[in-house]
Amino acid sequence: MSRTIVIDPVTRLEGHGKITLQLDDAGVVQDATFHVTQLRGFEKFCEGRPFYEMPNITARTCGICPVSHLIASSKACDAILAVRIPPVAANLRRIMNLAQLVQSHALSFFYLSSPDLLLGMDAPPDERSILHIAHSHPSIGADGVALRQFGQRIIELLAGRRIHPGWTIPGGVNEPLSAEKRDQILGMIPAATAAIQRTLTWFRGSIEKFSAEIEVFANFPTLFMGLVDDNGLAEYYDGALRFIDSEGNIIAGELNPAHYSEFIGEAVEPYTYMKFPYYKPLGYPGGTYRVGPLARLNLADRCDTPLADVEWRDFRAMSPKPLLSSFHYHYARLIEMLHATEKIEALLADQSILDKHVRATASVNNLEGVGVAEAPRGTLIHHYKVDENGLIVWVNLIIATGHNNAAMNRGILQTARHYVQGKHIAEGMLNRVEAVVRTFDPCLSCSTHAMGSMPLAVELRAPDGSLIREVRRG
Amino acid sequence: MSAEPNVRTLTINGEEISARSDQTILEAAREHNVGIPTLCHLEGLSEVGACRICLVEVKGARRLLPACVTQVAEGMEVTTHSPKIDRYRTMILELFFAERNHVCSVCVANGNCELQSLAATLGMTHVEMPYQYPQLPVDASHPRFTVDHNRCVLCTRCVRVCSEIEGANTWGVMGRGATSLVITDLKEPWGDSETCTSCGKCVQVCPTGALFEKSRAGTKVRKHPEFLPYLRIMREGDQP
């Protein structure tokens, strides 16, 4: 008899979701779907608010990456003001965005995924947590905590608080950086760099153990999208959008992010609240693309800092073409942390970072504004329309996790087909299905900009749709 | 004639004090360093007794009385703090929060809001009344200022300062009870008001984020209502 497995909730994710696996009579997975089971509604309830409240309101989409929303939203508001913000303000925002990248990647890698990587996918579920890692691998656990603290502390020094800081505002930032705080941040960099390098050494050494997972963890051709600077180097705050195909060909090189709607479409599926963005010229699902650390390192010509560039070359040397397995998101995350740390140091080394003129003021000069930046999980787009008084009349948010939605669903099917077979379903099989989702580090609260909370579930269903087994957590 | 008949002796919290006969309980109490919380009261403006946060017990009175509009009397026995008074004040404060949409985390006045400070001072931990979630407009038509009715507590400080200090009488109140709104002229958009001088006094005296300066949004805005008594004295000095 065929059956359906439900994993509900999927754990060690940011948000609530469930996975349904459809098995046939022989116990072979026929279909797999990832449902995001929350709805929040930011796009609707922001209507009527003054546009300059948007950074603060949309930051509440997420407690992990509020900075990403602050940045994209502030940039959309800059466009409404039609100002060029002071260069120092842009660089201060850059530093905060990179600090956010480090802390968020540390959360994903160490807190959420390191138990799978250190203890193995088949380890008992009650051991697969950062608390257990703190006992079993104390130095790695300590590095994880320290790196997250490093990112959060920089955000706090710049903006006054770690979560939902109100420092980034339309036109710039509301307070310049003091020399004392700059020195404090610079003082933290050597330890952070060393911790990332230790982790990279360990991870590189253990990657072979996961060759089976690498084969089937969302390992298929898709496009990749991300920001690059004028020289084609990895960029997180500004720049142009680049699409490459799975062969590494640049299929669109210098797309203006403000015109995203000309090349990104959004499809809808009935089983989830999360939309499916796609590259319009190739249609849906042919235009499926991935964003985030793996995409960025695949599509950029290189990073632009010395240590990260060495790592990037080793990373890309694993394949003559773009790396297609989503398992490599983990590796890419570590390289990006190193790059971000070096970049923060370089930005702080420039004396102009202490300039006092950090804000441009203006009133409403455009009735529409788009702000795009690279969030830890990928490209984040905020798009607002306002009336002549600056009250919001329309909002569209395309979130990093959303871009990866189609690839995540296909990845779950691929992994489930490989691991979930037969009458008896071992816990380790289901953990791999969850682990493939974790490689993308999805943030489901953000992706639905929605109402509610977020645990995850896996359902095992019969061909007639009847529920056979459900694994539910959270 | 001596000034003696103008002096009244009363007790506040059991302590005997003297006050001028034209003083309110609030004035007498503050002169003797007895703290009474207030919201609609602002030194330099007339009193309206609108918010009732300053309720006190007066022996012999059947109900609590607002200290800002109750004049002192000979032999009066006033209590400013008791469990009953605290309960009433907190309940009134909760009603303010439930009546409109006060979302501190995204408010321009966060950290510099008198309503927020009162909640902290009075130890308001939660709101027991159901929130009303009224759908109220935001008027951003003025080039410099915005009024967000969602955050208005109807203290009428803006109405009073506009009339009593600036003399423009732009602000008024329409409607009744909880559905009242402060309005500019005859409910025209603020930006179209012909009487508004754009002096910004209403913004400075507003206790919450209901009135604010657009250019200051996102910065740590501290309002400066303390200028009022000086302005008043200067104006009175100009009188012939």
Explain how this protein is built.
- The complex is a heterodimer of chains A (474) and B (240).
- Chain A is α+β, with helices and mostly antiparallel strands.
- Chain A has two domains: 3-212 and 349-473, Cytochrome-c3 Hydrogenase, chain B (Orthogonal Bundle); 221-323, no CATH class.
- Chain A is built from 16 helices and 16 strands.
- In chain A, strand 4 (168-169) and strand 5 form a beta hairpin.
- In chain A, helix 4 (87-119) runs antiparallel to helix 12, helix 5 (130-136) packs across helix 6 and helix 11 runs antiparallel to helix 12 (329-349).
- In chain B, the strands form three sheets. Chain B has a five-stranded mixed β-sheet, sandwiched between helices.
- Chain B has 240 residues and is α+β, with helices and mostly antiparallel strands.
- Chain B contains six helices and ten strands.
- Chain B folds into two domains: 4-81, Roll (Ubiquitin-like (UB roll)), CATH 3.10.20; 87-238, Alpha-Beta Plaits (2-Layer Sandwich).
- In chain B, 35% of the residues are buried.
- Classes of the chains: A alpha+beta (474), B alpha+beta (240).
- At the A-B interface, helix 2 of A face strand 6 of B.
Summarize, please.
In chain A, 43% of the residues lie in helices and 19% in strands. With 474 residues, chain A is of the alpha+beta class.
